Amino acid sequence: MHDPAALTALEKKHLWHPFTAMADWCAPGHEPVMLVEGNGCVLRDSTGREYLDGNSSIWTNIHGHGHPVITGAIEEQLRKVAHTSFLGLSHPLAAELATELVGLFEAGESKLQRVFFSDNGSTAVECAVRMALQYWAQNGRPERVELAAFEGAYHGDTLGAVSLGGIAAFRGVSERVGYPVRRLARIEDLEGLEATTLAAVVIEPLIQGAAGMRLWPKGLLRALSDWCQKHDVFLILDEVMTGFGRTGTMFACQQEDVVPDFIALAKGLTGGYMPLAATLTSERVFEGFLGRPEDGRTFYYGHSYTANALGCAAALGSLRVFREEQVLLHLPAKIARLASELKRFDALPWVAETRQCGLIAGIDLVAQKEPKKAFEPGQLMGAAVCAAARDLGLLTRPVLDTLVLMPPLVATENEITQMADALFNAVTMVCGVSPPACF
Ligand SMILES: Cc1ncc(COP(=O)(O)O)c(C=O)c1O
């Protein structure tokens, strides 16, 4: 049995958490939740308390925790070998997974035929950008050195990926050393944009996650794709958050019949079990890298854990669950349940707007609805509501004052309602009074 007090002391002594103000985290009053077990949508902490996983463990989990097919697939592979180099060697699961991933796009005239594995969402995007830039450099268009990305975008934290991002707080030092990026706010900004020096446009399709679950207008993705094709600029889709059923279809781009030149996949790729990512691209791009080693066309990029066998086993397990449990067919009823739950939030005096895309919901908190008045930033109201929700048995994390509800796809309609109940009660409890800032 874990000793919660001793663990808390050790964790505060030695750990440094991502995106976390560590002085507050380490303050004596703060008790971190230590998760030790999971089953379906339920997570259990070191004290035995149970919580619903209201943000799919940071947008990764698809079929719930402890799914026997995925755990079984990982265990089976673990008994054979956990990891082998993908540099100069290969393994069966990588080939099987690449084939299945490509097959997910084959319904249309998919260009996506090549799969490059890496470890996380940032590297999946980074890889697409590096491929795009190198492709043009060695295929007759060396002037194509710039990228275009959107305001509010989030594409990860490696130096290249973060420089594409449109959230200033996250860009930090990359402001000075990242990629040259032209920033777009809306589709109209493409008019007058000089295309000849652009290598690629990068976008989170249908919805921007870290910007606070902001929906793109319907048709924007299609229009962007048309523009890219017209100007022969690569389209890179970052489906790190939206991939694998999250928006109601297997991939968000399928809702606007768009097939990009690159697609970045991570998070839900393994069902949320293992860190694995994939960048899919076309034969056109792939062929642009062929040649003798001395020609210098090789793609010199990769990581030690590329195509990790346990990750590939988990991903194949997850895709098997999609097929066997007909996960996509069950989504419309769950999405409808989430929509009906959001209606009662709309009625609250502290909710300016709710937004939904598939099983993703954003709820904007405000101090006053009419005229609209935000909470003071120091009040950290989104964090305070999520702390109260945690005490009511729901784990989720806000984006500033936007609450996020993103149940695993396996969540039942009843569980979605339970999650909404906890969040709703947390909002009403917290927003009426001004709580101290907390996690
Ligand atoms: C759209 C998008 N792209 C990229 C990333 C980065 O993924 P990772 O955290 O796995 O590097 C994220 C993470 O939230 C994301 O939402």
Molecular structure report:
The structure is a single chain. The protein is α/β, with parallel strands linked by helices and 439 residues long. The chain contains 15 helices and 16 strands. The chain has a seven-stranded mixed sheet with strand order 4-12-11-10-7-5-6, sandwiched between helices. Helix 4 packs antiparallel against helix 12, helix 5 crosses helix 12 and helix 14 packs across helix 15. The longest helix is centred in the C-terminal third of the chain and has 20 residues. The site of pyridoxal-5'-phosphate has 15 residues, from helix 6.
Give the structure's gist in a few sentences.
With 439 residues, the chain is α/β, with parallel strands linked by helices. Helix content is 36%, strand content 17%.
Second CATH tier, the architecture of the largest domain? 3-Layer(aba) Sandwich
Largest sheet strand order: 4-12-11-10-7-5-6
What is the approximate shape?
Answer: globular
CATH topology of the largest domain: Aspartate Aminotransferase, domain 2
CATH superfamily of the largest domain: Type I PLP-dependent aspartate aminotransferase-like (Major domain)
The overall number of domains is: 2
Estimate the mean pLDDT confidence.
Answer: 94
Low-confidence stretches: 435-439
Quaternary status: single chain
- The portion of residues forming beta strands comes to 15-25%
Q: Total number of helical segments? A: 15
**Radius of gyration of CA atoms, rounded to a whole number:** 22 Å
Return the structural class.
Answer: alpha/beta
In CATH's first tier, which class of the largest domain applies? Alpha Beta
